[in-house]
Design goal:
By secondary structure, the chain is mainly alpha-helical. The protein folds into two domains: 2-243, Alpha Horseshoe (Serine Threonine Protein Phosphatase 5, Tetratricopeptide repeat), CATH 1.25.40.10; 251-365, no CATH class. It has 14 helices and no strands. It is elongated, with a radius of gyration of 38 Å. 28% of the residues are buried.
Length: 366
């Protein structure tokens, strides 16, 4: 379920939320050793890496997905798609391998599209046309409107590379018509394909010196950028909410820790006070001092522990948790307690003697 929420968040552009959900789902999947789910989550994380312009991170996650399921088509396709931007020559064999084993017509159309893109990038236009023509035929046959949108844009790019601008515009305009209906549901289209489409159209009209069309499409670019900015603001607001909620959660946890710490301090202080009172009582009755020294030692230990508990954060900050320095400061604290204990012992003994003398005097009066 978390993986599903993560996928939905990524579809909406809320990448930080999607990533958090996917990682939580991954922990569960790894605990359950569910290789299918692990593969899906790693693939989703790779897709988030792609959409946030982290290709190396995306490749790493796709490879982790394939380590669990070597024949996973989606992970292979995404990996090759990411490699297309870096090194098309490495992507082509992966796409060709998928094409040889996958018989689903929609999947085949996507692979033909990807191969067409790769061959355009390496300027092998004959192979590019063959694959783009194949993907267009499948998309029209299956009435896949989103596929037709992507494929016509790619065919337009093919003709643009060959300087056949009229044919390029014909395919670009088909994509523009479909963009009005389907662009909001396609992240890859909005992040890379549509900006590239507008750029190529502006360049064509600039070459043709059709300035009215150049201005119109440049306004279209501005409108598109405004739409992206609005989405970014929405996403940023969501990130702020997420960050604030996490901050609040941490704050509440800290408050709970402070409350718990204070309770423990009070408990230690009460035990210490009780031990001191007990020492006073026993010192007055323990004429031969059989028990008083033991209670004195207990009080000394408790006092030392209480001081350590209170000053531990400060000691840790000073010593940076270096054992030798921490030990040295603890020894100094212990040595400081020796004169305090000696002074306290004298006063307590004097107090005990006074109590015994008063008892003797009161008994003699009687």
């Amino acid at each position: 379920m978390r993986s599903f929420y993560g996928h939905l968040s990524a579809t909406g552009g809320f990448y930080s939320i999607a990533q958090a959900q996917e990682f939580k789902a991954l922990e569960i999947a790894l605990t359950l050793k569910d290789s299918s789910l692990i593969t899906t989550i790693y693939t989703d994380l790779g897709a988030i890496g792609d959409e946030t312009n982290l290709p190396n991170k995306a490749i790493d996650y796709y490879q982790k997905a394939l380590a669990y399921s070597p024949n996973e088509t989606r992970a292979k396709n995404n990996l090759a798609r990411t490699l297309t931007e870096i090194n098309p020559f490495k992507a082509i064999p992966i796409f060709q391998e998928i094409l040889s084993i996958d018989k689903d017509s929609l999947a085949i159309a996507i692979i033909h599209n990807n191969l067409g893109d790769c061959f355009i990038r390496i300027k092998n236009y004959d192979s590019a046309y063959k694959h783009i023509k194949a993907t267009l035929e499948i998309s029209y046959r299956t009435r896949d409107s989103v596929g037709i949108m992507f494929d016509n844009k790619l065919m337009g790019t093919y003709y643009f590379q060959l300087n056949q601008f009229n044919k390029a515009k014909k395919h670009f305009y088909v994509s523009l018509q479909l963009d009005k209906k389907f662009s909001n549901s396609e992240l890859t289209w909005n992040s890379s394909e549509f900006p590239s489409l507008l750029d190529q159209i502006v360049r064509i009209y600039t070459i043709e010196k059709n300035m009215d069309s150049v201005i119109w499409f440049k306004n279209k670019v501005i409108e598109f950028q405004g739409r992206l900015l609005a989405e970014q603001k929405k996403n940023t607001a969501e990130f702020v909410f997420s960050g604030q909620e996490e901050g609040l959660k941490v704050f509440v946890q800290k408050q709970e820790q402070v409350r718990k710490g204070l309770t423990e301090y009070y408990a230690i202080a009460l035990v210490l006070m009780f031990s001191i009172v007990l020492y006073f009582i026993i010192s007055g009755k323990d004429l031969k001092r059989k028990y008083a020294p033991f209670i004195s030692i207990v009080i000394l230990i408790l006092m030392f522990e209480f001081i350590l508990v209170i000053f531990d954060p400060l000691i840790s900050k000073i010593t940076h948790d270096e054992p030798i320095y921490t030990f040295g400061i603890n020894v100094l604290l212990a040595l400081m307690l020796v004169p305090m204990q000696s002074l306290g012992e004298k006063n307590i003994q004097k107090f005990a003697v006074d109590i015994r003398l008063r008892r003797i005097e009161s008994s003699e009066v009687k």
